[in-house]
Amino acid sequence: MFHPSIDDVRLEAVLHALSDPVRVAIFAAIAGADCALTCSTFSSVNERAIPKSSLSQHFKVLREAGLIRSERQGVEMRNVSRCAEVDGRFPGLIAAIIQAHAIEAKAAA
Predict the structure, then answer these.
(1) Alpha-carbon distance 43 to 32, whole Å?
(2) CB count, 10 Å around CB of 45?
(3) Given phi > 0 = left and psi -120 to 50 = alpha, else beta, which region is 4?
């Protein structure tokens, strides 16, 4: 799997990856988790079932934007955030996006 070096992470790719409501929800959950989360954790996002093919595409976009690192463990993919690395490159960006997502999610609830 392709994981860009932090020097190759582009702001445009990060913003594009997080422009989709499903992807930003997935990323926010991964970023807030204490441990790696499997892809199957997100079979439902925002009370909507997500097909496996769509879920795979969402994880690919997040991974190629440099936002997550995915590792295969047996038949599962375990995903962790790269928040600290991205924050080093774009200070405050991830915190602002996650905070904005939390505000929108709270308003929607």
Answers:
(1) 18
(2) 19
(3) beta
- pLDDT tens digits, one per residue of 14-46: 999 999 999 999 999 999 999 999 998 998 888
Q: Where are the beta strands (DSSP E) in the chain?
A: 37-38, 44-45, 48-49, 68-73, 76-81
- Give the range of the structural domain holding residue 42, as residue numbers without chain letter: 6-108
Which residues make Cβ contacts (< 8 Å) with residue 22, sequence separation at least 6?
45, 46, 48, 50, 54, 58
Residue given tokens 């463990």 in the structure block: 73
Reported pTM: 0.93
Identify the CATH number of the domain in which residue 77 sits.
1.10.10.10
Query: In total, how many domains does the chain have?
Result: 1
Pairs from 86-90 (Cβ < 8 Å, separation ≥ 24): 86/6, 86/9, 86/14, 88/6, 89/6, 89/7, 89/9, 90/11, 90/14
